[in-house]
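Go through this pair.

…
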Amino acid sequence: MRMHEVTADQMIEWLAARYEAGREEYGDAHLHRYGLVDVIEEVLDAINILKLWAERMKAENIRPSLEDPEAYERLVDQVLDGFADVLFLIRDLDAHIPGRACSDEQGGHRVWWSEEG
């Protein structure tokens, strides 16, 4: 299966399966983690993964099937811009929640955040 073949219903099923798997693995740990930091970390990872994927496409000289090769780069840039928007929306959301909701007893060591936060 390819990503572009995944239907909206399948995406919802995938989301539910990942939710259930996460609940089984982590139980109620989310009650003792700074959840918005978890979300930011996942988005930052997604940005890095997309950039590495784009590097692979260049390194392997893989060309998109678009008539306009620049359209491919614009699509990648749009995804990266969308991730950046999400980062700032989450940061803005954080400004409106009480500090008691930001505890992180089970967050463990977090790259950069543990040193800076």
Q: What stands out?
A: The mean pLDDT is 94. Helices lie at 8-26, 35-59, 69-94, 113-116. Residues 33-116 form one domain.
